Amino acid sequence: MKPNYPILAIATAAQAAFAVAMWLWLVEARPQNVVNQFWGHFGPASLLVLLGMVALIERGGPVAMGTKEAWLAIAGGGIYILADTFIMHPPWGVFDGAGKAEQEHVTIMAMVLMLGVSALAMLRKFGDRAHLSVHFAVAVLVVSMVFLSHMQPTMAGTSVHSATVVFLVLCAALRVLRRTFEYGIALIVTGWIFYSSQMGFAGFVQMKGYSPGAWIALWAMFGFASATIFTLLAPPLTDEDD
User: Fold this and answer.
1) Does the pLDDT value for residue 17 go beyond 90?
2) Any long-range contacts for 127-133 (C-beta under 8 Å, 24+ apart)?
3) In the chain, alpha helices (H)
4) Rounded distance between C-alpha atoms, residue 173 and residue 197, angstroms
5) In this structure, which long-range contacts are made by residues 133-137, counting pairs with CB atoms below 8 Å and at least 24 apart in sequence?
6) Is the peptide bond before 31 cis (omega within 30 degrees of 0)?
7) What integer best gives the mean pLDDT of the chain?
8) Domain coordinates of the chain in residue numbers?
């Protein structure tokens, strides 16, 4: 049984619109660096949510799921690098001088792109015997190391980036344990939490004097709502999927 792709597309677009609407509502000051941060977080967060959605709805086995994940990684990494190079930081992005944060963003997404290429190569050579969990686990370790030096101007930004790392570690553990459905839910929640870590939101939390912990919980709630929608639209699980 296949999911209803038109309904799935509408649900995905509606969630993206909600995320954008929250930013437009809460982030009043929008200098160019804050706008760049929006796109720099919206893209990777969307990638995490889409990867989670694939884990929830795919019923074609590990090769089909891995192939979709790989192409998403290639597309997400490639689009991010092209956007940073020619739109966000023209004319040549990191190739024409860049701050440390931009260097970290672009190199992480370049790693994601190559992760996708490597996963495709392994799938074509080894099929369902390819162990792609190691790709995700190593990528999470790299992101964790980068985030240790990814300095944030606010406590909220630091707290939410740290929470993102913790959730990614959980995702990696679930992937290694082959708990695909739970992995998908955790990825979706992680994507929403990471989206909330951008400078505009972090500045809002600090300006209002809100709790960074409560902010994390709020966006985790949105993440669980998102995962619930995708779960309701997913085909039934079979004994092979369990």
Assistant:
1) yes
2) 127/63, 128/61, 128/62, 128/63, 130/62, 130/63, 130/66, 132/62, 132/66, 132/69, 133/172, 133/175, 133/176, 133/178
3) 5-26, 32-57, 62-83, 100-126, 133-148, 155-176, 180-195, 199-208, 212-233
4) 23
5) 133/172, 133/175, 133/176, 133/178, 136/171, 136/172, 136/175, 137/172, 137/175, 137/176
6) no
7) 90
8) 5-233
Q: State pTM to two decimals.
A: 0.92
Q: What does the alpha-carbon distance between residue 179 and residue 6 come to, in Å, rounded to a whole number? A: 27
Model pLDDT for residues 71-130, shown as the tens digit of each residue: 999 999 999 999 888 887 777 766 666 677 778 888 899 999 999 999 999 999 998 888
Residue environment code for 140-153, b if the CB has 16+ CB neighbours within 10 A, otherwise e: beebbebbeebebe
CA dist 58 and 207 (Å) reads 42
Say what the pLDDT of residue 112 is: 94
Q: What are the tokens at 230?
A: 């995708």
